[in-house]
Amino acid sequence: MKSIHTNSQASSIDQLLQNALNYSPQIQHQYAIVVPCYNEESRFAYEEFKNFAQHHPEVLLCLVNDGSKDKTLAVLRGIQTESPNNIVVVDMAQNGGKSEAVRQGMLFVHKNYDSKLIGFLDADLATTPEEWLLMAKYKENHPKFGAIVGSRIQRLGAEINRDDSRSLASTVIKKIIKTILKANFQDTQCGAKIFQRNLVPFLFKNQFQTPWLFDVEIFLRLQEKFGKTTLQRGVLEYPLLHWSEVGDSRLKLKDTIKIPLQLLGLYYHYQVKSKPKSIWDNKKSKFVLHQN
Questions:
Q1: CA-CA distance, 219 to 180, in Å (whole number)?
Q2: Where are the alpha helices (DSSP H) in 89-166?
Q3: Using one digit for the tens of pLDDT, what is the confidence trace for 70-110?
Q4: How many other CB atoms sit within 10 Å of the CB of residue 118?
Q5: What are 242's strand-pairing partners?
Q6: What does each C-alpha distance from 87 to 38, 83, 143, 274 come to in angstroms?
Q7: Greatest mean pLDDT range, 38-52, 146-160, 165-179, 213-227
Q8: Among 118, 65, 129, CA closest to 96
Q9: Strand, coil or helix: 87
Q10: CA–CA separation, 58 vs 85, rounded Å?
């Protein structure tokens, strides 16, 4: 009898999962959040994401399994069965790193859903989905901006808990980023960002050059397409009310040391290599463009 009961229970779970995978939602998701997940089996914020999904049917959660080596995919499939109308799982067979997981998720959402605002946040919930949604609604009140990005600015009334042990390195890196972008960004590396739908194909079509600095690359791509003043006119920084550094989500020291060199590589790729070397090259490129 116990074996029959066990088999029946397993069959029921399989049916729930199958229903979730085949579910075609009737609801229009106004917003979509991509969440990259790598080896999150023991730390995935299951209840927090489930409650958010059930209370906000207008928001699609796209959970991307980045080739995890543990049972992360099973955890993500499990939460998908609990709210199949607005939770979808993308499974990457190979680990591609955070930048590639975000890229694949953004392109998947753009291709399969009609969400007007599409963005991402980190699985550790350093920024909560509730605050991400506040960002999205703030963006809607300022339609002239194509993107809105979270900013971890220390100020009265805000709970921003960051590790200051690397403040010198962070200060140096921030100055390099400001110099490269030629914009007075307070925070480019916060994991919460939102973009207008029409920007997604251009910004995420090609793979990123670096695993950790793809945020900077996004802004460089905007500048490359729309000009140097794009960031000032088209990107809005949103001061977060809450942000907490969680566990081992921080960069290792060796990665921190590599970052200045990677930034110089990005500068060369987007602002030196991509520029015509002479007036003649510039005219030639325009001629080719018109011919095409």
A1: 10
A2: 98-112, 129-140
A3: 999 999 999 999 999 999 999 999 999 999 999 999 999 99
A4: 27
A5: 159
A6: 17, 6, 27, 39
A7: 38-52
A8: 65
A9: strand
A10: 10
Which residue from 137, 102, 136, 95 is spatially nearest to 122, judged by alpha carbons? 102
- Between the CA of residue 245 and those of 18, 109, 164, what are the distances in Å? 36, 27, 11
Question: Helices 214-226 & 98-112, crossing angle to 10 degrees?
Answer: 50
Phi-psi region of 160 (alpha: psi -120 to 50; beta: other; left: phi over 0): beta
Model confidence, pTM: 0.78
**CA geometry: angle at 138 spanning 134 and 141, to 5°?**
150
pLDDT at res. 169:
63
Mean pLDDT value across the chain:
79
Distance CA 107, CA 290 (A): 29
pLDDT (0 to 100) of residue 247 = 55
Nearest to 249 by CA among 32, 45, 34, 73: 45
Rounded Cα–Cα distance for residues 212 and 237 (Å): 20
Phi–psi pair at 155, nearest 5 degrees: -160, 165
Question: At residue 148, what are phi and psi to the nearest 5 degrees?
Answer: -135, 135
Instruction: Write phi, then psi, for 243 (nearest 5 degrees).
Output: -160, 130
Both tokens of 179, joined, read: 């110099």
Contact 207, 165 (CB under 8 A): no
Quickly count: other Cβ atoms within 10 Å of residue 25's Cβ.
14
DSSP letter, residue 149:
E
DSSP of 169-237: HHHHHHHHHHHHHTS--S-S--S-EEEEGGGHHHHHSSPPS-SS-HHHHHHHHHHHHH-TTHHHHHEEE
Tell how far CA 236 is from the center of its chain.
16
Token reading at 68: 């995890």
DSSP helix, strand, coil percent of the chain (3-state; round to 5)? 50, 15, 35
Q: What is the DSSP letter of 270?
A: I
